[in-house]
Amino acid sequence: MRLQKFLADAGIASRRKAEELIAAGRVEVNGKTIREMGFLVDPEKDEIKYLNRVVKPAKKKIYLMLNKPAGCVSTCHDESGRKTVMQYVKDVKERLYPVGRLDFTTEGLLLMTNDGALTNALTHPRHNVSKKYLAVIDSEVTDEELEKLAKGVVLDDGYKTAPCILKLLSEAKDRSEVLCIITEGKNRQVRRMFAAIEKNVCYLKRVAVGDIKLGNLRKGTYRMLTDEEVAYLKKFISL
């Protein structure tokens, strides 16, 4: 088994993040630091360590959704000491990691699992998994401005966003609610899209990932995905 796949399956990180950990020299096999991508290991015979801790294969695959509150980061650890989403799932025995990220001030649906193959599939750009957000803007938003966003706008780093779907849910002079459906996952993308038309997002909540919906799950709590939801997500592995 390739070392990065083993780390992902063991719940250390996604496949791509595991490759970064290997390249950074944070992984050892039988006492030797490994930086080679695709290095083969035998989990039954080899001792694999990450940050000097022995890594063991995950015994049980876990799939859950968390209603992430604002004020925490979507990582397993934070060097700045900020609260992480792991504090909301600390009663889960298996080691989990987030599927993608929601920024510090964004709320809503965050998938978490120890299934590295699924994480890799859901975060790969080629699969175009849709993400649905409720955005509150602190000003009026016109139909023309939404049409411009829907066609794609150039962000502050020069990247042009792909076409997306936007629907105005309510509007007033100092407040507009917009439903946004995007298939990309650029850092702080929804906020940056509105910033490109000089609008400020004062509240952002992700309410769905593909066909998986947040529903009425309370903020700061989680639930296990149903068998049907897991089956739906796993179809992306084989695409």
UniProtKB/TrEMBL annotation:
Keyword Magnesium carried by entry: no
Broad EC category: isomerase
E.C. numbers: 5.4.99.-
Gene Ontology BP terms: enzyme-directed rRNA pseudouridine synthesis
Domain RNA-binding S4: 1-63
Record carries keyword Cytoplasm: no
Pfam families, A to Z: PseudoU_synth_2 (PF00849), S4 (PF01479)
Molecular function in Gene Ontology: RNA binding; rRNA pseudouridine synthase activity
Record Gene3D superfamilies: Alpha-L RNA-binding motif, Pseudouridine synthase I, catalytic domain, N-terminal subdomain, RNA-binding S4 domain
Alphabetic keyword roster: Isomerase, RNA-binding
Cellular component, GO annotation: cytosol
Source organism superkingdom: Bacteria
NCBIfam families: pseudouridine synthase (TIGR00093)
Alphabetical list of PANTHER family matching this protein: PSEUDOURIDINE SYNTHASE FAMILY PROTEIN-RELATED, RNA-BINDING S4 DOMAIN-CONTAINING PROTEIN
Family of this protein: Belongs to the pseudouridine synthase RsuA family.
UniProt name for this protein: Pseudouridine synthase
Source organism of the structure: Christensenella minuta
Lineage: Bacteria, Bacillati, Bacillota, Clostridia, Christensenellales
